[in-house]
Amino acid sequence: MSADRHFLRRFAAAVTGQHLPTEEELLRGMPFFKEALSEDMCEYAARLGRRIKRRRQKYLLPIVECLDDLSRVPSDDRVIALVEALDQLPKTKTFPVEACRLRCLIYLAFFGQPEAAIKMAGEMARLAFKDVRHGEQSGMVYRSLGWTVASTVLEERLRLGGQSSSYRVAEKAKTYEHLFQSAVRALARKQADNRRPDDRDPAVNDDRPMVGPPHLDQEYVAPGAVIVINSIGNGSTSEGKRVAREFGALLKQPLPLKKTPNLASVRSALVEEFPYAEALVDKVLNPLVGRRHVWIHPTIFVGPPGCGKSRFARRLSEELRVPYEMISCGGMSDSAIGGASRRWTSGEPSLPVMAVRRHDCAGPIIILDEVEKIGTSRQNGNAHDVLLGLLEGETARRWHDPYIEAECNLGFVTWLMTANAVDPIPAVLRDRCRVLRFPQPGPEHVAALAPRILEGLYLEAGHDPRWATPLDALELEVLAAAWSGGSIRTLKRFLEGLMEAREQERSRQ
Fold first, then answer.
1. Quick one: which of 122, 198, 231, 431 has the fewest CB in 10 Å?
2. Which residue ranges does the chain devote to CATH 3.40.50.300?
3. What is the rounded distance in angstroms from the CA atom of residue 505 to the CA atom of residue 508?
């Protein structure tokens, strides 16, 4: 479980540009640096180039030149040039040749090169075998199969004269991965249904439909799975066919719900990080006791700026191991959250449908940050009006998406919101939510908060947090005296000053 938590933290750090994923993390599904292939290539090439230059070894100069080119203009041609330079490199233990070669392989696979894609699928299969040997269930098997099929389809496309640059190989691989998972689930379900009731394994019955959200009927089509999209509206038109292709991987397919993890472990991790919010942690987690799958009643965390409520919503999602989307509501004034009709050039699905598709999960968590800042103009629709329908269980499970042009079951999506004040939020919206006051930390919590903030500052600076010298008793005492509590951002600024003082002290030594 600690490994999963570590992966999720690095996953979030990669999205925000605070962590450059390793090759194995990329193979296991972690996004590229800042969720962009080009950003990852530039960052990787720049970092590795700096490391090599410090060694001042002449035989590495061709590698340095290739890395400099790649950091300036990330492209498949420059990746290929780097691979060719690696092939000419003499055997050495001072340069990570194989790791660099694997990184290039991943890049070329995402650029749509069939040979690289099939080799990357082989690396995924190797990781899957490694997981099985350690007694762990691994989704890498499906991921490997998905990339294998995508590579063969891509190869056939290129043979017929298609262009790899316009072929979205990663999305195709994800689609085939999902189809393999669905097929295996369907087979397991069929085998379970064919067994006599008296012979059924109690574990199978234990995984049968849980008592879902109180306002929902039981719509599970498989143990712990729900069909979100049953049909595509106006499917006979050209636009309908395009949307059907776009959502083919989800159409009539059962999507999983996330099982409720060990709540004692979740509580322990959250209380350790938010010691001043222990009572609130219990209020949030208690309704999950007895539920087999995660679903939280729409909740608004209200507290002054800087008290940590946004981070708490994110960390809660991570500890529950549920995929999430965090949306800033500052400046939001129209109904885009509910999607736009496919008839317009700006047409797109509703926010929860996009979250379901992105995470391949029927019950993701959506975090609306500073929900009180949503504008009230109705010129292009109003976000509050859309939210009312999405937060109401009866409406959400039959949500008519304007892009899909059909009903979607969004009743298992969890909505968490943060607000600095509750008064600007319309009463009808508050009525559909549980409003919880988020407490403020005090100086007595410095010893628990400061080390984590310091670790984050080192990550932001691009350093390994293990380099950070632990705060001593005198430093903690000074921080507690300077910071009277309230905004964690203020405590962060004090720690930034402390880091600067430490660096100045080191430079004088």
1. 198
2. 263-437
3. 5
